[in-house]
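FAQ: What does the model actually see?

It sees only this:
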Amino acid sequence: QVQLVESGGRLVQAGGSLRLSCAASGRFFSIYGMGWFRQAPGQEREVVAAIPAIGGSTDYADSVKGRFTISRNNAQNTLYLQMNSLKLEDTAVYYCAARYSYSHSHVAGEYTYWGQGTQVTVSS
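And it is asked to produce this:
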């Protein structure tokens, strides 16, 4: 069992930066593939970035490549999402998710555990 709690979301101006954090409780954080997803009003939840349990390559949605960076600190049971050059279209509730697999995935249905979400609002 893993509990996930996101933080760091807030109102920010376009072009600004934010760092989201996802604190995980429970055991064996280092064996879970992790992902960040987001959902804007009236839209489906979409993957933003994903990272495997230990090392390996990270993956990003095309819309955030070059602007967002996913990382994790397994010693501190924490997942991060550094977001730079924020755009209006990045406004959404951001969720972190964990799947019981060393690998990561872009498919929301393959993740077992979800946080409650944190709101990111980008203004002009």
